[in-house]
Write a structure and sequence with these properties.
heterodimer; A: mainly alpha; 5 helices; about 80% helix; B: alpha/beta; seven-stranded mixed beta sheet; five-stranded parallel beta sheet; elongated
Chain lengths: ~120, ~550
């Protein structure tokens, strides 16, 4: 498992139904957010990408997936610098996509176990 | 006119550092003055050097020409008589040590003379031989004592004035700085709002310049205020449980954009497997680290800045010594400047490079470290870099101790309809978390969630909220603008209800924009539920 749900569980306060709700929102948000990040990067909309990375950070912090969190941080740096030194950008998008998919799958797996 | 004569009588000295006592005898009776001189010559108690004048006018001239430890004054002289003689003399020499010589029938006049400023009086007659040396000695001692007392009082007064002047100066600086901060906040806040409007390139450039300069100036004002508080000893430390590695990481995150902009590497390292939970003043430690690491980034043009946290094997009592080393590959500090680098307003000049700042940062850092019973040192080699080593004693927190919870009043209970809170938050995960967290604690709480600032402004028209939790970054109008709009509502209820910012930015308190637009406080995300409950309790306790 690449996900670490300790923070999510802490915020759910030990309540299983809250945890399930949070996992579902996490899964759904990821499915919308990852393509949005990619689209903003490809469109070089740095201002909006910077704003969105901030938003995305609040989503993925619940996943505990460090590769995803760090890739978003680095992409955010690039966006804040308006695309300067963006040679790593493609690789970061690729990491966000692959790790995003993986988190969704793992979240789905946890949800199944909670049924 | 010259004195008529002088003589030296070699005997024990009173208090004139083995120098003969200089006595001026003002006496018109020549035979009597010779008698006095003879008496002093043959006494065993004191060594004197006596000058004689026969009238007051000559006496005053003589006093103006030289210093005398004692004056023997006959009150009845050719040019003046009675107490007027003494008064005239004292008018010219207010600090003179005068022993009045009176006739047998004028004892009362002697008493009056003492009342008017003479140190003593002697009645002319056969007893004077015995009394004269003693009277001289005592009068000189008394005069020396009084002179010393007067000088002590003058010094005390001078010191009081100097201290009062320093206090007033500090107060003026503090007041002026404080007064400057208010309009500075307005300039900063309005510039931020201006920057968010549609501007052409030139206008954007001007606005950026205003913003940058305002932030620098606000930083200077805050530094001056803190320095003033540190000098007055009015900075208190507030202990709490916190994770020291997390604090270091947050400072690194804040400074990372500046380092990246200069292509610098900014690393940090903490001991593996150390929870880092300590008891101390997190905010002041952050301030120290921000100054030291910030300086390292500011002065380093090429290379890296490395922050390393380690634990000393030495402990002080029950406290663990934590060592934080900040090493940079900057220009280094010349040896002759290293000693005074922590003094206020000291800045190391670099040829051709203008470095911003007041020179207060290191002084503030050092004073705070000392206040925390720690130590800060530096080693530096010109051309290679500088390393600051901060050593601070921390009590290690027990694992069960809660982190960063401000102790407040006991958490309130909420009955149905008693408390109505609006949360302005666009992020679905955060909405969910805050809803679950608050309703679990207070099931009877009325909770409304606005997803945008515009929606929040609409909501206040239909609801009477008791408190608002405001995310700062929102789509559309942001948390600052939303708060400003709420504060400008036509409903006066919204001019005063508590609005708490919710932000992931740890240095939001340094910005103070949130205060400018009318927010009361802030809570950091990801939030600790207990902290959130305590803040809500605190701000609604009178509800």
């Amino acid at each position: 498992m690449t996900i670490d749900l300790s923070y999510l569980e802490k915020m759910a306060g030990g309540d299983v139904s809250t945890k399930k709700m949070m996992l579902k929102v996490l899964r759904d948000e990821l499915s919308k957010d990852v393509p949005r990040v990619k689209g903003l990067y490809q469109g070089q909309d740095w201002e909006e990408l910077s704003r969105f990375c901030h938003h995305f950070k609040s989503t993925i912090v619940f996943s505990g997936n460090q590769r995803l969190i760090q890739a978003n941080e680095k992409l955010w740096d690039i966006a804040k610098r308006k695309g300067q030194n963006a040679n790593q950008g493609e690789q970061l998008i690729s990491t966000i996509e692959s790790q995003g998919r993986r988190v969704q799958q793992e979240v789905q797996q946890v949800l199944r176990q909670l049924q | 006119m010259q004195a008529q004569g002088s003589q030296r009588i070699s005997k024990d000295d009173v208090a004139t550092n083995n120098r003969a006592i200089r006595v001026l005898l003002i006496e018109d009776d020549f035979s009597y003055s010779r008698l006095i001189r003879a008496m002093l010559q043959f006494n065993d108690e004191i060594e004197t050097e006596v000058d004689i004048c026969t009238n007051l006018s000559d006496g005053i001239d003589q006093l103006n020409a030289g210093e005398y430890e004692a004056i023997l004054l006959d009150l009845n002289l050719p040019d003046t008589r009675g107490l007027a003689t003494l008064r005239q003399l004292l008018a010219h020499q207010p600090n003179a040590n005068v022993i009045v010589l009176t006739g047998t029938n004028d004892r009362q006049q002697g008493v009056q003379a003492v009342g008017e400023g003479a140190q003593d009086y002697l009645v002319k007659g056969k007893e004077i031989e015995e009394q004269l040396p003693r009277a001289l000695r005592f009068s000189i001692q008394r005069k020396q004592y009084l002179t010393l007392q007067r000088k002590t009082e003058e010094l005390q007064r001078a010191r009081d004035i100097a201290e009062e002047t320093a206090r007033v100066r500090e107060q003026v600086i503090a007041n002026v700085s404080h007064e400057l901060r208010t309009p500075m906040n307005a300039i900063l806040g309005m510039s931020n709002l201006l920057a968010e409007t549609t501007l052409d390139n030139e206008q954007q450039e001007f606005t950026d310049s205003i913003l940058e300069a305002s932030q620098v100036l606000l930083g200077i004002i805050n530094d001056i205020l803190l320095t003033s508080s540190l000098q007055k000893g009015t900075v208190d430390l507030h202990e709490e449980v916190f994770e020291l590695p997390l604090t270091v990481r947050r400072i690194i995150e804040v400074l990372k954009p500046k380092a990246l902009a200069k292509q610098l590497e900014l690393h940090y390292e903490v001991p593996p497997n150390w929870t880092g939970r300590v008891v101390g003043d997190k905010q002041r430690l952050s301030q120290v680290l921000y100054n030291i690491i910030g300086n390292a980034v500011k002065f380093t043009e090429v290379g890296q800045v490395e922050v390393k946290v380690s634990l000393s094997t030495e402990a002080i009592g029950d406290k663990q010594q934590v060592i934080i080393a900040v090493a940079d590959s900057g220009p280094g500090i010349p040896p002759e400047r290293q000693a005074d680098i922590f003094q206020p307003f000291v800045r190391v000049k670099r040829a051709g490079i203008r470095i911003e700042g007041t020179g207060l940062g290191l002084n503030i850092a050092q004073q705070l470290v000392v206040q925390m019973n720690g130590d800060i040192r530096l080693t530096s080699t010109v051309g290679e870099g500088t390393t600051f080593v901060i050593t601070l004693p921390f009590e290690l927190a027990k694992e069960q101790a809660p982190i960063a919870v401000v102790k407040q009043a006991p958490r309130r209970r909420i009955k149905s309809g008693e408390l109505n809170i609006m949360v302005v938050e666009d992020h679905p995960m955060n909405q969910l978390v805050i809803r679950q967290t608050l309703l679990k604690q207070w099931p009877e709480l009325e909770l409304h969630i606005a997803e945008t600032g515009e929606q929040a402004v609409d909501f206040i028209n239909d609801h009477r909220f008791d408190l608002i939790l405001m995310d700062l970054q929102l789509p559309g109008i942001d948390g600052y603008e939303t708060t400003a709009a709420i504060r400008q509502s036509t409903n006066p209820h919204y001019h005063r209800i508590p609005i708490l910012a919710m932000t992931a930015q740890p240095l939001v308190s340094d910005d103070e924009r949130y205060l400018l637009v009318g927010m009361n406080d802030y809570i950091l995300k990801p939030f600790v539920p207990a902290d959130l409950f305590d803040k809500i309790t605190h701000y609604t306790q009178n509800k």
